[in-house]
Structures are given as structure tokens and as C-alpha cells.
Design goal:
Strand order of the largest sheet: 1-2
CATH architecture: Orthogonal Bundle
Bound molecules: FE2/S2 (inorganic) cluster
Helix content: 55-70%
Oligomer: single chain
CATH superfamily: BFD-like [2Fe-2S]-binding domain
Number of helices: 4
Structural class: mainly alpha
Distance between the termini: 31 Å
Number of strands: 2
Shape: globular
Number of domains: 1
Strand content: 5-15%
Length: about 70
């Protein structure tokens, strides 16, 4: 049985590059910003449709760190 958090980690946030939420979170924790994550994974380099979701997710991670 898979925990719910694992399912979220496997959720694709950028369909164009197939980048998962877990991958973005992992790179963010390694200190990469949105531009570096984009370069590394190809996120945001396709249709751009994921831009708002990813910006929002990174904002949540940043706020979570500050809390
Ligand atoms: S869904 Fe991310 S660039 Fe298209």
C-alpha cells in the first residue's frame, strides 16, 4: 500500500517534461531556484501551462520553510 504523500510525489506537475512534484521538491531542497529547476528538468520549457502551479508550489515550500 502506498502512502498518500508518495502519490503526491509522483504527481506530474509539468506534462511537457514529465517532471513530478517530488522531483521539483527535491531540487528545491538542494537549493535550486525556479530557473535552475527549469534548466535541469525541462520544466517550463514547453507550453508553459505548468508555470502557475509550479510557482505556487515553490511559494508554498518557501513559506513552509519560514514557518
Ligand atoms: S506543462 Fe510544463 S511546459 Fe508544458
Amino acid at each position: 500500500m502506498t502512502a498518500k504523500s508518495d502519490n503526491l510525489d509522483d504527481e506530474i506537475m509539468c506534462e511537457c517534461s514529465g517532471t513530478t512534484r517530488g522531483k521539483i521538491q527535491s531540487l528545491y531542497k538542494q537549493g535550486l531556484d525556479i530557473d535552475a529547476i527549469s534548466s535541469w528538468t525541462g520544466t517550463l520549457s514547453g507550453c508553459g501551462g505548468c508555470e502557475w502551479d509550479i510557482a505556487q508550489f515553490l511559494k508554498e515550500l518557501t513559506e513552509h520553510e519560514k514557518a
